[in-house]
Design brief:
heterodimer, A: 6 helices, globular, B: alpha/beta, Metallo-beta-lactamase, Chain A, seven-stranded mixed sheet, 14 strands
């Protein structure tokens, strides 16, 4: 299995000189199996360039599977610009959590309402299918085994653990940590006092996440904020690298990838964050990488070098 | 009157090395009168940077007043709304003026839908701390905001209409004709010519290089040549090519400008993010 980052930014796309190296497009990750199957996680603005690449490679119309963590704009805005959708015969299966609406098709189709975009999803040549996911209810897509995991984000969000080719990785975005704020189905102007039930719910969510991540090779995690930014905006639904590292240490994962970078974090700040957490991770036995647009990572232990070769 | 382009890209925000000179942010243009009154046109991603800058002045203290004209509500013209920081400061007064997008969808319902709970944690305009008024413009109306006299017109934009603006201040005129496609490039609509007549600056949709237009007819955008035809017939003094295609790299835009300038006597340039103009 291999994962490739097409968009690593949170909230909104950030063009300009400050984001040239890490990239300015929002959430989108491509997964490929050894046999060549493809899975797409999140449909942020990074999906436009991914679609153009898939179009160049495809010899015929394909069936794409797209897992959505949630449908905030930064995770779905790329869909109308995914060029394979404009090729007849293409099938696109969308998987998402249903929140704050009656019907998935309505919500996802709603991004191309007449007021927002010149062509509706119904009018696009590709055939769309919509599948509701539920945390804890696993499913298979080709050789990929997919496990949705409940996360702590306004109106709900799901992460995914994906197993394939004898290894595993997980996509944990968007999520706040599991102590100060419990996100529910209403707007938070600031952190609200937690009830005992809220604390129990948060504890259960964290336990289920750690359990699901147990022994996973690579975890891609929402690390939008620095510690200082988190203290100011604990109710925005995002985490810090320290919080991600703590979860990954508890689950004994091998590698953590920082992801969903705040729009304000320019390349130089990202360099400092990357260096700091590479060092911190080494202290707890976790390799910490910082995602950038275009980064590809093989999932699973590095293949053993054939030490006899070439001698 | 001074003008600054904060976002000049059409359809989709483009990051990366190929888009540094003209900029990758979607549409947003700021106008400031000599007396300091401010007007913003469109809330694409370019507005986020302006929002941050405004926070240093009265908007950070909750004393800012800003009228914003929307050409229409396609996402590239409103996607900066949830990230425009002055909305989050109590006391600021922000007016959003634009036409109802369709007979069935009002401007207010459309913006509410943009902030609906599944799409945005803001969960509705009512959660913006600033005072926000949504004011429906009927294209054809003349509107006044402090310091500016504005004439509006509906122009065809693919399957919908966008609102074009002729904005006068300090005795100068800027015409904003973005997101427009005429039935024929060589015969621009009289309504567009009227808006651009004698303008000191015409900002015109130039989504496509002329040679790429045929393949893209019907999406509601113009080739670079369309702006030239309007500027020449309307006697506009200067033409800014605007709403660049996401596929157009800096070098490609340079080429479009060179080709376009070679065939007209109207001074032509491509709008570039961050650039200031003294009108």
């Amino acid at each position: 299995m291999q994962i490739t980052f097409w968009g690593v930014r949170g909230s909104y796309p950030v063009p300009g000189a400050a984001t040239v190296r890490y990239g300015g497009q929002t959430s989108c990750v491509e997964v490929t199996s050894a046999a060549g199957e493809t899975l797409i996680v999140d449909a942020g603005t990074g999906m436009r360039a991914l679609g153009n690449k898939l179009m160049r490679e495809a010899t015929q119309a394909q069936h794409y599977h797209v897992l959505l963590s949630h449908v905030h704009w930064d995770h779905i805005q790329g869909l109308p610009f995914f060029s394979p959708a404009y090729v007849a015969g293409t099938r696109i299966s969308m998987y998402a959590l249903l929140t704050a609406a009656d019907e998935l098709q309505q919500v996802i189709g709603g991004i191309t309402r007449h007021e927002f975009f010149p062509m509706s999803l119904e009018a696009v040549p590709a055939q769309f299918e919509f599948h509701q996911v539920e945390p804890g209810v696993d499913f298979d897509l080709g050789s990929f085994h997919v496990m949705p995991i409940a996360l702590n984000h306004p109106f709900g969000s799901v992460g995914y653990r994906v197993d394939g080719d004898g290894s595993s990785w997980a996509y944990i975005a968007d999520t706040a940590p599991f102590d100060r704020v419990l996100h529910k189905q209403h707007f938070l102007a600031g952190p609200e006092a937690l009830s005992e039930d809220d604390r129990i719910a948060l504890g259960a969510m964290r336990d289920a996440l750690v359990q699901r991540l147990e022994g996973v090779d690579t975890v891609v995690y929402d690390t939008h904020f620095t510690e200082d930014e988190y203290r100011r905006f604990p109710h925005y639904g995002h985490s810090t690298p320290d919080q991600a590292l703590e979860i990954c240490a508890a689950a004994r994962v091998r590698r953590l990838v920082l992801y969903h970078h705040a729009p304000s974090h320019g390349d130089e700040q990202m360099d400092r964050i990357a260096a700091e957490y590479l060092r911190k991770g080494a202290g707890v036995g976790i390799e910490v990488l910082t995602s950038f647009e275009g980064m590809s990572l093989p999932i699973g232990p590095e293949p053993e070098l054939d030490r006899g070769a070439g001698r | 009157m001074k003008l600054r382009f904060w976002g000049v890209r059409g359809s989709f925000a483009m990051s990366g090395r190929d888009f540094l000179r003209y900029g990758g942010n979607t549409t947003s243009v700021e106008l400031v009168t000599d007396a300091g009154e401010r007007l913003l046109i469109d809330l694409g991603t370019g507005a986020t940077e302006l929002g941050k800058k405004l926070m240093g002045a009265e908007f950070g203290a909750g004393k800012g007043k800003l009228p914003i004209l929307l050409s229409h509500t396609h996402l590239d013209h409103i996607q900066g709304l949830p990230f425009f920081t002055p909305f989050f400061i109590k006391g600021n007064e922000i007016r959003i003026l634009g036409a109802n997008p369709t007979a069935g969808a009002s401007l207010e319902a459309t913006l509410q839908n943009q902030l609906a709970p599944h799409y945005s944690p803001l969960n509705g305009l009512e959660n913006l701390a600033a005072g926000v008024s949504i004011e429906v413009v009927t294209p054809g109306d003349t509107i006044a905001v402090p310091g500016f006299q504005i004439i509006t017109a509906a122009v065809p934009h693919g399957s919908m209409w966008s609102t074009a603006y002729r904005i006068a201040a300090d005795g100068q005129v800027v015409t904003y004709l973005s997101d427009v496609e005429y039935p024929s490039v060589d015969e621009p609509l009289e309504i567009a010519l009227a808006l651009a007549r004698g303008a000191d600056l015409l900002i015109h949709d130039a989504m496509y290089a002329d040679q790429d237009y045929e393949l893209n007819r019907g999406w509601g955008h113009s080739p670079a040549r369309a702006g030239v035809v309007v500027a020449e017939r309307a006697g506009a003094k200067k033409l800014a090519l605007f709403h660049h295609s996401p596929d157009a790299t800096d070098d490609m835009i340079d080429e479009v400008v060179a080709r376009t300038a070679a065939r007209t006597t109207v001074p032509v340039f491509a709008a570039a993010e961050g650039s200031y103009l003294d009108i």
